[in-house]
Amino acid sequence: MRPILRNKDLVFHVDLRNNQGRRPQDETTINYCQASGTTLVHERNGYRFSSGGSDVIDCGNNGNINFATQMSVSAWIYMNSTVTAVSKVTTASTGFAYLIAYNLDNKVYFQMTGNGTTVVYGNTTVTYPLNQWVHVTCTYNGGGSTNTDKLKIYFNGREITSMVFVGSIPTSIYRSSSPLTINKFNGSTYGNGKIGLLRMFKTCLNHTQVMQEYVNTKGEFRIQ
After folding, report:
1. Contact yes or no for 151/169 (Cβ under 8 A)
2. How far is the C-alpha of 96 from the C-alpha of 80, rounded, in Å?
3. Which tens digits make up the pLDDT trace of 112-140?
4. Which listed residue, 31, 72, 104, 142, has the most CB atoms within 10 A of its CB?
5. How far apart, in whole angstroms, are the C-alpha atoms of residue 184 and residue 153?
6. Using an 8 Å Cβ cutoff, are 199 and 3 in contact?
7. What is the CA radius of gyration of the chain?
């Protein structure tokens, strides 16, 4: 079953399996996507992915993805051994508006900043499996009373309760003027992990909604 694109809180939806060599398309029609230095490869299983090197997909700076107090990012990823990411960076070299890094230590890092320079983050202490598709959802709720209330990470619809937090997660996110990018960790680091489907919401999904995201799309991905 495909997710319903009419969801009023859905602000970004790109399926890298369906672009058939064309420019990736945000199916919400809100944002544009421009592949830069990218080779999107069609493998035997039919999925598209960014192949490493300096591959990046630039998704622009539409106000709908410049979140303030709530956000959710849901993605199917297939990690090999190096970092890939979804990021909205600031102009400061140490700062991010928000960044989700599927890291080379097999953990997920969810970083953000409230002022454009100071990075705070949470990361999973448990690892996700390599060389298979995993559904990862990261949610942020600035109205939470503690770091664990504000920032959550889910693997295959289930919350990862073993987390490490650095700093105090802000109540609102700095509004970066930089574009949203896929497969770019910072100004010079790119990955080779695959991202099959990426969806972003302007609200903080609850556990039931995260599980629904996973269930609605898991039949489309080969879980090895």
Report:
1. yes
2. 25
3. 988 767 888 999 999 988 888 899 999 99
4. 72
5. 20
6. yes
7. 16
